[in-house]
Amino acid sequence: MDSRTNAEDCLGWAATDPSGVLSPYKFSRRPIGSDDLSIKITHCGVCYADVIWSRNMHGDSMYPLVPGHEIAGVVREVGSNVQRFKVGDPVGVGTYVNTCRDCEYCNDGIEVQCEKGAVSTFNGIDVDGTVTKGGYSSFIVVHERYCFKIPNNYPLASAAPLLCAGITVYSPMIRHNMNQPGKSLGVIGLGGLGHMAVKFGKAFGLNVTVLSTSISKKEEALKLLGADKFVISSDQEQMKGLSKSLDFIVDTASGDHSFDPYMSLLKTAGIYALVGFPSEVKFSPASLNLGMKTFAGSITGGTKLIQEMIDFCAAQKIYPQIEVIPIQYATEALERLVKRDVKYRFVIDIENSLK
Length: 355
Fold this sequence. Notes:
Elements: E1 9-15, E2 22-28, E3 36-45, H1 48-54, E4 71-78, E5 90-93, E6 96-98, H2 104-107, E7 119-120, E8 139-143, E9 147-149, H3 156-159, H4 165-175, E10 184-188, H5 192-203, E11 207-212, H6 218-224, E12 229-232, H7 236-241, E13 246-251, H8 260-263, E14 266-274, H9 285-289, E15 294-297, H10 303-316, E16 322-325, H11 330-338, E17 345-349, H12 350-353
Parallel strand pairs: 10-11, 10-13, 11-12, 13-14, 14-15, 16-17
Antiparallel strand pairs: 1-2, 3-4, 3-8, 3-17, 4-5, 5-9, 6-7
Helix pairs in contact: 4-5
């Protein structure tokens, strides 16, 4: 197959309207450029972003829409200028596939903050003017700068969720020095992002407390994920017992919640990193000012940090908890994701189910 021609069909699953129901869809990928990789996709993680845009929840979805921005696969072709990859290499692609490569953020390797806007892996506008289509598909063409080496000993199914869920929590944890052994971390929410924050926290040598509204997650938080403590956040007595005890909090909850009760758990000069997207953020200035606390936001990360995280996971043998599914189950998986019925990340087996 010669992907230098536009005629080659890529097989994907796409949403065609705001119902978000996915069905088979054939389309053409852009021809491979001199700096591009053509990647055979083997696995793709299922992220809440896939729900948002397949259902047009932000009002900007361009149909047909092929979701998926936690992509793992194998290089099948390289452009003439490509230096870092060769055919057969295991490779990952995350939430963006292009940036200006010229602003201060791109030059610093934090391309996700590109001044001209990073081009999303799906539902963005590609270099050739077409709409980008994501990882629920058989292959993808991406500039090598936005591709990541996956160590040979790291399973591709496990690598996929690192490209969004993993980096979304790793990024603020590194930026705010949450990797100091012996310090204490609170993790709010125990889904795809939260369970990775727990795993990273333990790998960094932190004392980790999971803060959840769901008692049903207690046993897995402590035994499977290795958290040190589990607290029901709606139980005022339990929360009072944690007052001023945490150095750091990573808040992965996207449902609306009060912030003041959680802020009260931070020590003086504690840091609160928000990575979820509730409809509003509201807390008393006293919650912030009196204890010299820092409240910070974050999204995914730049290319340097993403590669560092993948290598860290391979070295430390950190693997997301995944449920591997066929592409035919994708619509149902998105519905289960809305209901928070997943432990802890769906990964689509593209290689064996997309025919």
